């Protein structure tokens, strides 16, 4: 439990804290009122200035958090001061409310006397305040004593008769000449050193008067009354004029921060310049001047020997002078104390931040202080001003933000300042101002960022700002908009390169030069890190070729370095770059193919964790995928090329012996790419046939790694065109095949790429391979295929991006059964599932070109068998039965019933048993397919229609049926729309049938088409031999070419 003494100390500490807070709040309210009072404006501003300066001193108790060190006597003094200030607050409030009714000078005089008394009491109280003896406590005590003496001597008076306007505001009248003459005639006291009064009064106005507040005294009791009177006289009027003009009619702010906060002595001033001396020197006359001023004075005399002291007029025998070391030390000490005091007052002003003018004046003062001594910046940094400046970056005034940025730049010109600002000020705020509409703000922001970018901490901080580096890059690239900012940002980005993470961010935002420069010219560790980044970042379309061109050689050299980490990073980057096909040219020119082949087949590094063979295979596969012809490119010193038996055999052997799925995937990708070239294709097919590689590929179909299974199936599909029957036989000999290639819809939650390529593999194998067809039937695969087709037709192909390819493979697999109908088991299956009706329905309901082509081929194969399967009808008799009529039963006589005959096939037909296209209503859909844009679809549909005009059928009736369906119009469109020889020949064959069997009606339909003759003549002139013969025959039938009898000619 706390003792009574501890409790009492805590209570006093809390009381002191509350007292200071209350005083500051009350003073802020008073100053806000007095700046708006227009009666005796100068006097009330003086009153407010005294209180403001008092608040700056008292704030030391608050800012330094010294409440616990404040004596109890000081707390009582503060309580007394608070009562006086509260009284003043009541006076100014009453004056504000009743100014329109204040008509007597005596009333105003009474109020001013009361306020004058308040200032004196506050001054006396301030002299009793004891500041904690810490760091700056001594300076605070000196400043308080100086201000106290000035406040005790204060005097307010009514300067002139006040006139009341209609709105209740009062104007200020000029001082009367009598008052001025009285002031000038005031008796003057002399100081320790004699000063010419006229020169002093004149030169005082040459001082930087704008840095004085109207009430700030440039001296103390140690200075002469002459200087005090002048500060209240001529200089007072000058400052008031400058102050009012700077506000441009806006609400007034507190006066400017005083330039001289510490007691000032006349001996500090140079008699020639009336400015505080920087380098005091004493001449022969014993008077001290500033070195620069006296040298200039001597120079006026040239080479003359008659030189006089500018102050005393004494003739000088020499131009020499001596440094006044003691005075210089005193002035330097005073400057240091004064600047510290000014810094604290500026901090108080920035903390209060009542008006824009107050902030700007405080910042201006701090900038001036920074320029004077380097150590002043340290004082500003350690006193807590930088956090206040950071908050001002959010200020709504553009001028304040600009001034704040400029001051921060001044403070950041040394390493300590950079670090402090970097850790205190929010980087996003500064970056945000780079996009300001105001040019000066942009320039100030860019200049500050450049200074801060020399700090490693700030570089890392900018990299963490979301979009910060992207903004800098954008500004750098827009030089025409703002060249100054762009040049600064360019330097900033160079400084940011100190952080590898920033370089990565630059590359991600499209600025690749830093990363590539460090990759090519950096030290080993930096090259390694840049290579790692290059392997991680996705290259944009605009940078793919540029990055490959610049980095290829450097990365390939890193592969040869032998350092595992560097090699790993280089492989990763090369794999990324090679994945963009346009980069392959630069990689091949840099020699990457030879290096990767060496890594795959020749180079061996023991105990290297990374599988370089896999990385090399992936890079080589990427390059081959681009389509670059590498068959004849020498890949090793032995003269081998990518199409050599050695290379192909080595790749296939690695597939057989490798247990790494990813390596096998990349090896298969290489083979797939090589299959695009004739020479390498022949070599691959030969090696696969001679070895058991096809078994290995088939076994990989059901590997747990789905990507590997897909790759192996794709290679088998490509090989099927060259060795399809071999693959079909080996597939049937493999356990679980071909049953595993087709799944039931219930087993497929989602159609994947593997489902699609598996179905297409079965569709691409030779359709006539009876062994495979019977294997599919015996393994009950067909019902699963048909169920899957019906399921996709119900759900649509949009359920998966592989649904269309899967559907094409399923239909293609069904078509294979239509090529082996000579087998009774196959025939029974086709009849059982009525594939004729199924293909017709698919043809009507799909928009896929591949499916339409496959369905048309299936209908063609089925229709070719219709003549053989169609039989003459069997005669059968009906049974006798009794029919009740009017309650009696009569017996029907028996009749012979005959089934209707197919007009084309001359027998009994059906879509299910004889596969008749007419019975399946497939002809109309096939005719519609003749208008398709895809040549393969048109060719397949026309071939199916041609089966109805074969010599084995009744051509006369078939032509009649097709004529009724307007088939000739579709065929003529094929002739006009397509120029492929095979289509022209088939179309001419159909047209010839119609001309021969269709009679005058068909001839008329064909002759009426105006475009057909020109198309026919063109084919007659330019077609191949078969096409010309058929065209000539049709032209003769249309009487376009005369028919001559050979007997009319004499040979």
From TrEMBL:
Asked if the Swiss-Prot or TrEMBL record annotates the protein with the keyword Transferase, the reply is: yes
Q: According to the lineage, what is the superkingdom?
A: Eukaryota
**Entries under CDD domains matching the protein:** RING-Ubox_PUB
Q: What class of enzyme is it?
A: transferase
Its EC number(s):
2.3.2.27
Name the catalysed reactions. Answer: S-ubiquitinyl-[E2 ubiquitin-conjugating enzyme]-L-cysteine + [acceptor protein]-L-lysine = [E2 ubiquitin-conjugating enzyme]-L-cysteine + N(6)-ubiquitinyl-[acceptor protein]-L-lysine
Which keywords fit this entry according to its UniProt record?
Answer: Repeat, Transferase
Pathway-wise, it operates in:
Protein modification; protein ubiquitination
- TM stretches of this protein: none
GO annotation terms (biological process) = protein ubiquitination
Q: Which GO terms fall under molecular function for this chain's record?
A: ubiquitin protein ligase activity
Chain ranges of the U-box domain:
263-341
Coiled coil residues, start to end: none
Instruction: Tell me what this protein is called.
Output: RING-type E3 ubiquitin transferase
* Organism taxonomic ancestry: Eukaryota, Viridiplantae, Streptophyta, Embryophyta, Tracheophyta
